[in-house]
Write a structure and sequence with these properties.
Layout (H helix, E strand, L loop, with lengths): L2 H24 L3 H11 L1 H8 L8 E3 L8 E5 L5 E6 L6 E3 L1 H12 L2 H21 L10 H27 L7 H5 L3 H7 L2 H18 L25
Antiparallel strand pairs: 1-4, 2-3
Helix pairs in contact: 1-2, 1-6, 1-9, 2-9, 3-6, 4-6, 6-9
């Protein structure tokens, strides 16, 4: 299975479900049309999302979701600290790659609708607090621009990983190796729950307008030194 072909079909798995359940709203939606273009040109879209964008690029984890975190709990079984594991896919790219990957694979649509702004604001504030004074950190508007350019990468990772994460644990994936039609097997993996989750992610990308991957005219963030949470001065 070619990876770009798999992404195209997995992306349209969520797209088809979204149009089935809310076609009147999304069938002619401008960002849904743009997402279809990105799915049809998956290889180029994903390569564009990996472009290094200075001065905001960071060392990304590369596989950032709840199953690559170990949590520490208090006596009431509430998590109060976490540490990352599995650093085999580290790379230097836009912070939006890890942000979109983590949020799309680790939150529900209800959480995204209620707390998306809070989550991104918290990221910006925590990043500013973690570096020495004078270090350039992105403001929220810059993170939004990065998400518009690179969040397509997050849906790609979610399209591959969520069906595995949501599959029946009795499925040891032996059938994938022996299947005469591995694409069909994979597109059914995780069942209806996975399909609904992918539809929710497609809906969120469209609602947020995160469909700028591959377009010319990305702003030169190096010229913008103002930041809500910090600055280069």
């Amino acid at each position: 299975m070619a990876q770009d072909d798999l992404f195209k079909k997995c992306g349209k798995r969520g797209m088809d479900r979204l149009l089935k359940r809310d076609g009147d709203r999304y069938r002619d939606h401008a960002h849904i049309r743009r997402l279809n273009e990105l799915f049809d040109d998956a290889e180029n879209a994903l390569m564009q999302s990996l472009n290094v964008r200075e001065p905001l690029s960071v060392v990304c984890h590369g596989d950032w979701h709840r199953e690559t975190l170990l949590f520490r709990y208090d006596e009431h079984r509430r998590p109060f600290d976490a540490t990352a594991i599995d650093f085999s896919t580290l790379h230097y790219e836009s912070p939006a790659l890890d942000i979109s990957s983590f949020l799309y694979m680790s939150t529900t649509q209800r959480v995204r609708e209620a707390h998306w702004d809070d989550l991104l604001d918290t990221y910006c504030a925590a990043l500013a607090a973690s570096v020495p004074p004078g270090v350039r950190v992105p403001c929220r508007a810059e993170i939004d621009a990065e998400m518009a350019d690179a969040a397509i990468n997050g849906i790609a990772k979610a399209s591959f990983a969520l069906p595995f994460m949501l599959r029946d644990r009795s499925d040891t994936l032996d059938s994938l190796a022996t299947s005469d039609d591995p694409m069909h097997y994979f597109l059914a993996l995780g069942g209806d729950m996975a399909t609904e989750c992918l539809a929710d992610i497609v809906m969120h990308l469209a609602d947020m307008g995160y469909t700028d991957a591959g377009r010319d005219g990305h702003s030169d963030l190096a010229d913008n030194t103002d930041s809500k949470y910090g600055s280069s001065t």
